[in-house]
From TrEMBL:
It holds the Pfam family Lipase_GDSL. GO terms for biological process: lipid metabolic process. InterPro entries: GDSL, SGNH_hydro_sf. The keyword Transit peptide does not apply. It comes from the Eukaryota. PANTHER family: OSJNBB0059K02.9 PROTEIN, SGNH HYDROLASE-TYPE ESTERASE DOMAIN-CONTAINING PROTEIN. This is GDSL esterase/lipase. Transmembrane segments: none annotated. Residues 1-27 form the signal peptide. Belongs to the 'GDSL' lipolytic enzyme family. Keywords: Hydrolase, Lipid metabolism, Signal. GO terms for molecular function: hydrolase activity, acting on ester bonds. The lineage of its organism: Eukaryota, Viridiplantae, Streptophyta, Embryophyta, Tracheophyta.
């Protein structure tokens, strides 16, 4: 065969291969749809206003100043503040995940939505202070949030098609461990296995209801949060809390790490990168353990103030320099930095990139 003829055959073969490859990629794009709807379950890391507004107290402080204090800088309203029921100076994790989907913020809170109605962007079922197990401080467990979701699916309020093309965000952030710890149970090992199994059961329920993609937070280093580290004046993380987090995450990885349709969102590493190495990698945070807003005494809380009396809390002058907002939650700047670390794996899992 002449050289020119051989080259012609090779070129045709290569062209055919590229055409078939392009067709395959285009087909994959049409079969792997990015989520169109978002359902949120969990606690104050993702709650956007489900806890009821009442007179100022520790459990309702998220509806009062200084919560939401950074909101006016972003919406251009010029208002002094706009507390929205979020445990932050502005946005929380669910808002940042929603932004990855092209939404402006988290779907509406379940308790503030109209009955028998699902917003086109989804529903946020998360309640601050929620946990896996019941306790006096828990208004609703995470399992009961899934009950609400299930009732809306079975009634047709949330269509099966919408569930199929959705993503669920599940945040279980350690409230159970703090409850046991405060009760004097210092060895949390017996509790960890049960909490891990319950988390797996919740994931299985969501999948059985038709959710194809689930973002599951692992447990951040809870011993480094101000709530746990205040006794050391924020100089050291609590060993028991962090040990529980590592054991908890090990169980999640063993039982769900390879489960189809589940991505374990590695909050532990993202938090640790900032708390442990903040001076090197994240220079904007001058304080990685001390909160921006805190009560003057242990029994006080961010935002506490009696009428006609001075505030019983202190507030930092520059929130962008603090990783933690209050005793347990990151600032808006903190969440932004956390989610930037996690954006690529989340988008890849969801088929956005």
């Amino acid at each position: 065969m002449k050289l020119s003829a051989l080259l012609s055959v090779v070129c045709c073969a290569v062209g055919l291969f590229l055409a078939l490859s392009a067709a395959h990629v285009e087909s994959a794009r049409h079969t792997l749809h990015a989520p169109e709807t978002m359902f949120v379950f969990g606690d104050s890391f993702v709650d956007n206003g489900n806890l009821p507004r009442s007179d100022l107290a520790a459990e309702s402080r998220q509806w009062y100043y200084p919560y939401g204090i950074s909101y006016h800088k972003d919406d251009g309203s010029g208002r002094r503040h706009n507390a929205t029921g979020r445990f932050s100076d502005f946005m929380v994790q669910s808002d940042f995940v929603a932004k990855m989907l092209g939404l402006p913020q988290s779907p509406p809170a379940f308790s503030r939505a109209q009955k028998r109605y699902c917003h086109p962007t989804g529903v946020n079922f998360a309640f601050g202070r929620a946990a896996v197990y019941h306790s006096p401080e828990v208004m609703i467990t995470v399992g009961e949030q899934v009950d609400l979701f299930e009732s809306m699916v079975k009634s047709g309020t949330i269509s099966k098609n919408r569930v199929t093309h959705s993503v669920a965000l599940l945040a279980i952030s350690g409230n159970d461990y703090k409850t046991y710890y405060d009760a004097g149970i210092l060895d949390l090992t017996p509790v960890i296995e049960g909490l891990g199994n319950q988390t797996v059961a919740i994931v299985d329920r969501l999948r059985a209801l038709g959710v194809k993609r689930i973002l599951l937070n692992n447990l951040h280093p809870i011993g480094c949060t101000p709530l746990w580290s205040r006794a050391s004046k924020y100089k050291e993380c609590d060993y028991i809390g962090n040990k529980a987090a590592l054991q908890h995450n090990k169980i999640l990885k063993q039982k769900l790490g390879r489960k189809k349709g589940v991505l374990i969102v590695d909050l532990n590493t993202a938090f640790g990168n900032i708390i442990d190495h903040g001076s090197k990698s994240y220079k904007q945070f001058k304080n990685t353990r001390k909160p921006c807003c805190e009560g003057y005494r242990a029994n006080n809380y961010c935002g506490r103030q009696a009428k006609n009396y001075p505030p019983l809390y202190s507030l930092c002058p520059d929130r962008s320099q603090f990783f933690f907002w209050d005793d347990a939650h990151p600032t808006h700047a903190g969440w932004e930095t956390i989610m930037k670390q996690l954006e690529h794996p989340i988008k890849k899992f969801l088929g956005i990139v």
